[in-house]
Amino acid sequence: MKYRTRDFERPLVTVDLAIFTVRDDSLAVLLVQRPDTADEPFPRAWALPGGFIDIECDSDLLACARRKLKEKTGVVTPYLEQLGGWGSRKRDPRGWSITQVYFALMPSVDVELRAGANAAAARWARIDSGADGVGEKLAFDHAGLLAAAVARLRGKVEYTSLPAYLLPEEFTLSELQRAYEIILGRPLEKSAFRTRVEDANLVEKLPRQRRTTNRPAQLYRLRERSEPFFFPRTFSPREAS
Amino acid sequence: MKYRTRDFERPLVTVDLAIFTVRDDSLAVLLVQRPDTADEPFPRAWALPGGFIDIECDSDLLACARRKLKEKTGVVTPYLEQLGGWGSRKRDPRGWSITQVYFALMPSVDVELRAGANAAAARWARIDSGADGVGEKLAFDHAGLLAAAVARLRGKVEYTSLPAYLLPEEFTLSELQRAYEIILGRPLEKSAFRTRVEDANLVEKLPRQRRTTNRPAQLYRLRERSEPFFFPRTFSPREAS
DNA sequence: TAAATAGTGTCTCTAAGACATTATTTG
DNA sequence: CAAATAATGTCTTAGAGACACTATTTA
């Protein structure tokens, strides 16, 4: 090696994922169960999926996040962004550690939870509207990481098209509106919602309708664009005067 | 130690800072010069200030960022937020490395650049409006980190009160508007700007005026609030129709 | 009084909020 | 037809954009 690396002791580095979907009319996050062995911290506790960076096989942080995502869900999510880094002396009993948290959105149908191989038991945990996490303790500081991810999601939903990534490829405008309402925890005006979505040129009509027990609804899909759309205004409810 | 840590090799971890101010009617970022020794990469190149985490003395990432900030500028900045983490096998010739980048805003007057002790030569580098960085090569991938920081700053300035942190404690509304214009690279409407700022209850009048060669301007300061204000709409210019 | 910048007023326009109304299906 | 949800229309309102106009200082 050409350069000397300094004598600083290196922290542990992991990547964790907050993977969200909408199921059963509620926001949900994917949790995995930690192994039940005495030499691992928090045995049997539920945690966000993640783990150590493997500097042999991961060429960068995003690649590591994608690998973990693939291991847990078996799919490529339509949306993956970095949330941030948490590092401290206290957060892991094994020593000074840093975790890079990524934040993924996916349709509920795409998930195939696999318990086996190096993946432990996994489940979707419900996040009630108004709550900032699941109603249980999580391993490490994962409750805090999850709260930050939920806050980011709720914040961005006010002015972006993110909820579209929580739905299956084909959806109706009512379903999209419902996804917004579930995350925001408040009803939106149908008329304003629809003009906003249509003016943004976000979605395109499909030559199909969803038929249920009443008037059929037009099906749409996202226009081919990888980037989410940013609306110029938030969905703020009129203040009482 | 109670737990076994796994056999993964640990990456190098650093914290870097993008410290912005407004000076000479322009946005500027603080750069430091790397040491001129053969066992350090990028000798004499300019870089964002930063360095290795010291897990002996830094209790968490933010503390580490604050320590580096203090070392470089000698002040506590009024605004410091995490920008994100960059990690890859290639970004540092010494091996797989991660940097956590923080993003600070400060008034120009507060800075006292110190070359000496463990701080190398330092200077403010101008960022022209429209450009995504300084017009020169930087060490490591710092040009990319800086471009991301500038993009985040420009994006947030559209809908937040961040530019107020770039000004000295007392300022006029014209100076605040000018800070917005410098970062956004376009003029704003004076009337709309003033009503927006006043309606947000962001600033408070001081019993003083700034006297120059013409009509004196009312001086204001930020109301005591640590959090930046988020406006419900962006400053988007009317589209040509 | 001229120059310069501070600060206000007026009119328009866009898009959201509130809420009513019409449309289209099944049972 | 009733029930249910889809989809559209109308009116109001908040706040930005454009731009003119007034105000207050120094030279």
Question: Can you put this structure into words, describing what you see?
Answer:
Two copies of one chain form a homodimer. Chain A is of the alpha+beta class. Chain A is built from four helices and ten strands; from the N terminus they run ββββαβββαβααββ. In chain A, strands 1, 2, 3, 4, 5, 6 and 7 form a seven-stranded mixed sheet that branches. The mean pLDDT of chain A is 89. The interface between A and B is large, with 41 and 42 residues. The structure holds a DNA duplex (27 and 27 nucleotides).
What is the strand tally of chain A? 10
Give the radius of gyration of chain A.
Answer: 20 Å
List SSEs of chain A in N-to-C order.
Answer: EEEEHEEEHEHHEE
Average of pLDDT of chain A: 89
Structural class of chain A: alpha+beta
How far apart are the termini of chain A? Answer: 69 Å
User: Largest interface, and how many residues on either side?
Assistant: A-B, 41 and 42 residues
Categorize the overall geometry of chain A. Answer: elongated
Treating each run of at least 4 consecutive H or I residues as one helix, how many helices of chain A? 4
